[in-house]
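Page 37, top half.
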Amino acid sequence: MKIEIFKTEKDINNTKIAILADIHYCHNYKKVILGNIEKQLSHEKPQYLIIAGDILDKSNYEYQELIEFFKRISEKITIIAILGNHDFYYQKNKKEKICQLNEKFIKSLKNIKNTYLLRDEKIIINNICFYGFDLSYNHYEKDKESYSSFCQEISKLKTSLDDNYYNITIIHSPVNIYRYIRNNPTSHLSKSDLIISGHTHNGILPYWFTNITNKLFKSNRSLISPYRLVFPKYAQGRVYKPIDGIIYEGLIKLSKSSNFFSNFDFLFHKTIQIIEIKKEP
């Protein structure tokens, strides 16, 4: 089980959080995957489960089994979720994508007790502020996550952060946020104490390999990005500056969207990421 420790001087209780992202739920999803995650959560007993986007592989997929999974988890663990780029579209044919949220899925998710879907919203629990937002379909699919597009999207956000809380910012993609904070030190996002994201699928490298490079060289580079950029920055592991962060490797590395290659996803292990936030004496 992967565990990262983050320390703070802010007045909070020691907190254990489990992270999931890139569930990529789809037709014929292997039940054993969710079953194993449920067992891991039961063993680790975190207070919170953060889901950092790409819950569905396509917005038009059937989702009831996934909702039942969340209901069972929420009986013991507070779920905090955001949306990712795959939650915003479905594939009409091989060449055409349709931008369309599954509003029924969104409503079903919001109706689960002890579950919060954050869309430029925050929730404060025990002096921890969880803040989540999603970026647009156009930012991902048309602008290919350009930095200028990211800045435009951020300028539209309305929710602000308060230094009095321990601020956990949840964003699906880590590609631009650290650069933005470095370039905009007075931005409300710079008040984040910890940033949690997914999206990059560990650069399609196994965790045992990237974890070594991350720890030895404090490097977040990996093999390839979702948009086929080679050796991308902010693709995996722990982020040490300008703000603490964690880039979850993804529950599914090769989704149905990768067509033929999805058949090889079994080569990657399926596990949650555990982080512990501890108050320094």
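Page 37, bottom half:
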Amino acid sequence: MIRDQARVVIVGAGMAGAAAAYHLAVRRRIPGVTIVEAGEPCGLTSAMGTEAYRNWWPDPEMVGWMNRSIDLLEEVSARSGETIGLTRPGYLFVTGEPARAQALHDAAARASAWGVGELRVHGASAAAYPRSPAQGVAGAPDGADLLDGALLRELFPFVGEAAIAGLHVRRCGFLSCKALGTWLIGQAVAAGASLVRDRVVGVDLGGGRVRGLRLAGGGALGCDALVAAVGPHLREFAGLLGLELPLVCELHGKAGLVDDRGVVPADAPLMVWEDRQRLPWREDEVARLAADPGRRRWLDELPGGAHFRVRGRELLMLWTFEEHLSDAPVYPPRFDPDLGEALIRGLRAMIPGIDAYFGRGPGCRIDGGYYCKAPDNRPLVGPLGIDGAYVIGALSGYGIMGSQAAAELLADHLTGSPLPAHAALADPGRLADPDFLARAAALDTRSGQL
């Protein structure tokens, strides 16, 4: 068997693997970096996301993580000649409930102290409200702006009368996953990294450390370090190392609706309706849903969080109102064909104009992917407890936005550099800590999730 020697082998060329290759081969100039990918780079989970980012999180550690990752994304955008489509229109959280409006204010005040930026509370005038740039991120504000209902509708006329307040969080926006992944891998290859199109079927261990890996095509790669960047396949891949990681895969679907009536302008922020609601079905639709055991749940009160963004001519609609958990992903994933209609109805309270599309759900483009999640919904980056084995994963629904900080941290581990303050947040060792595991059942696996 022919064995080629590579210093670092990264298994997986999704967004985490692409970022890892860039940080190792380009930023740290590590020779002999090899990426092994069986499919298309950034073509599985990475391609199924909303291509969005935010520094809005419910704890200071994740705020620090994302601020650093966004710093690095902005640096990549500048180095790439602004080719990754980085914009910053923000996220706009909207509510029709006074108590929730106060909760948004309080959350923004806490987040401001954590590094999200200044909280600006506006009166009736829009004069002090900072506008987002039409393109790019230069001059874009950070922090958050709390708007009452009248000012909210003045600035965003497509928002309905039910809204009494909105919190516009500003260091949030969109980018092109394909452009970013292509640029990162291209830069890594130009710096000497190589891309091998094959599938890993085994890991060679000897003398208490990783020695190499075996490929489905019959070849093998020796290595000093093996990096698992396999997205939703992490639990399965860990089994090749003889490890059991308490991870789950959570299936998330989204629906793309062509906005041919221009209900929402192209420069809208990502919009979130915070309130619980019952969907606005007609009487005949209620009867049909009530007779279908698989869809009766859509007649119940559903949680808040229906949201969307504009991408091209589509409204990309999402709403995590139910859990689909598994130990391993199943491909191709299956989605309810009526998901699009439920999402359209779920956005009606925030955007009344979307009722023009009632009945258009069957024509929506429905797809999605898996969030690979640790019990606390926080990342895993660093050594796996076997000499030479590392992980960059469990990035849940924030892989695109969080992968730059993850890759930088991985590079710190591999090079023996000082670790940043947020390293403990992602320590894989916590999954072997009996105290952590004892608390795992009570941990919120949706913490920070939209």
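Margin note: The chain has a mean pLDDT of 95.
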